[in-house]
Amino acid sequence: MTTEKVIGIDLGTTYSCVAVMEGGKPEVIPNAEGSRTTPSVVGFTRTGERIVGHLAKRQAVTNPGRTILSIKREMGSNHRVTIDGNAYTPEQISAMILQKLKVDAEAYIGESITKAVITVPAYFNDSQRQATRDAGQIAGLDVLRIINEPTASSLAYGLDKLEQNGTILVYDLGGGTFDVSILEISDGVFEVKATAGNNRLGGDDFDQAIIDWMKEEFQKSNGIDISNDLMAVQRLKETAEKSKIELSSAMVSEIHLPFLTADASGPKHFQASLTRAKFNELIAHLVESTMEPVQQAIEDSGLSAEEIENVLLVGGSTRIPAVQDAIKRFFQKDPVKSVNPDEAVALGAAIQASILTGETQEVLLLDVTPLSLGIETAGGLFTKIIERNTTVPTSRSMSFTTTEDGQSHVEVHCLQGERELAKFNKSLARFVLDGIPRAPRGIPKIDVTFDIDADGIVHVSAKDAGSGNKQSVSIRRSSGLSRGDVERMEKEALEHAEQDKVQRDIIGAKMKAETLLADAERTLVKYSGVVDQDFLDQVKRSLDALKAALEQGDSPDLKLHVDRLDATLLEVGRVLYSSGRAAAADSVES
Fold this sequence. Notes:
Blueprint: E1 7-10, E2 15-22, E3 25-28, E4 38-39, E5 42-44, E6 50-52, H1 54-58, E7 67-68, E8 81-83, E9 86-88, H2 90-109, E10 115-120, H3 126-138, E11 142-148, H4 149-158, E12 166-173, E13 178-186, E14 189-198, H5 203-222, H6 230-246, E15 252-263, E16 266-275, H7 276-301, E17 310-314, H8 321-331, H9 344-356, E18 364-368, E19 373-377, E20 381-386, E21 391-392, E22 394-400, E23 409-416, E24 426-434, E25 446-452, E26 458-464, E27 470-474, H10 483-526, H11 533-551, H12 558-579, H13 581-589
Parallel strand pairs: 1-10, 10-11, 12-17, 14-18
Antiparallel strand pairs: 1-2, 2-3, 2-4, 5-6, 5-7, 8-9, 12-13, 13-14, 15-16, 18-21, 19-20, 19-23, 22-25, 23-24, 25-26, 26-27
Helix pairs in contact: 2-3, 3-10, 4-9, 5-6, 5-7, 7-8, 10-11, 10-12, 11-12
């Protein structure tokens, strides 16, 4: 009996990647376009067709208002994207990307995929983790585990080093988020000691620094502010990304943007040279801001910078020389580059998938919660019950009491964060525990318990010791999706996937039809007088029927006519070659 394959998915801000374990090794799955990573971009064409990945990114310049980029930055929020009157949640857009990865994986593996491990930034809060799990469900995936990105990449780095012991720091600078995690690897146990990060810092911000510079230079030379020109700004964004990548290996990037915009005097072009020195100046504050979480993680781990044996670079933005130089200066050593920064996270997710299925048994992963959890107490204070960097899964309890005489109920306000005052932390949920026997204040004993599961998702309960009354809640953000919402969206996504398949089949049939029509026209000319006229008449009838079907648009009979013409041409070829008349026709033609 074969075990169903479980894929590992790096759902990135700018690019996503999917991998699977094959023969005891994680392997990246190429997409339908042949690339090992897929742009995390969703687009809607002007005719309403939905496209994902490279096709969507390609239309971003010409159709910016209907192209959605970097949706990961909105996960766990109440943000909505409206296209053609339809409002899409970040979970739905992310699910469209996940569906694309799922379909590509199924084509590669040759079987249906229903289970996955999906990665998230280590510093994602509970709402963002829930949103990622919901996106997976909407895409038709049973998400076995949510795993932190730096932890996943450490698995990819350390799978072939299980006999070695050591401490590593993972510096993960992706397209939209930044994480740093410190892990201790010992006899196959990967234990996270501390984690820190910034969910609003990444390659997009480096691009934006170049975009702002180009807008300023263009305004200086032309006196035109193009900030509100969507198409022009999208061209700048595309150019900024290319220049950033060029400057990782070159000292200067030449920028040429003809017809960027126009005014009454005619079209305006933009031409400039961006040197690596100027780029480093533009991004210096961003690079510097990544070192604060590095310092925090080191302090939280109880280690010193000297005790970090290896620094592992993950995420495409770590290719920037200024980033690598900052790491060298801080740690006084060269970072490790033994893993592909674009693929390490997905490879690690595939390893974690194999651990969960029992395929890989010599590895144990111990992760931590990135932020403290607790409740609001008297005076608006935040009382922590589980401190940040506690190993998960975990469960912690703390006893509280009433603040008023005769109080029969209490409201439990659950929060996540590090600030002393409750109002400055992330509110997760509120619920009421009632039925408390009336007693003087300070007498009732109320036990509040926080449970964090292996995905880092939180469950809270409160119990009155006197009455035994208990109330519990699985944290769901108030502005988020209900279970019914997720199931409805999952059904819609499934229906859309079926529509997409029909559309792909039609497009494939049209492409094949165009090829066959050209072949049929050549056959009628080339073999006239060489093969029996009955065969040529049959080709002509099939050709005319296929042309008619194409003229009808998305005709349901298109594939039928394609298959008929294909079979007719094959029969002509069989007759030609069996009779030796093909060579005769070739000699006549020459």
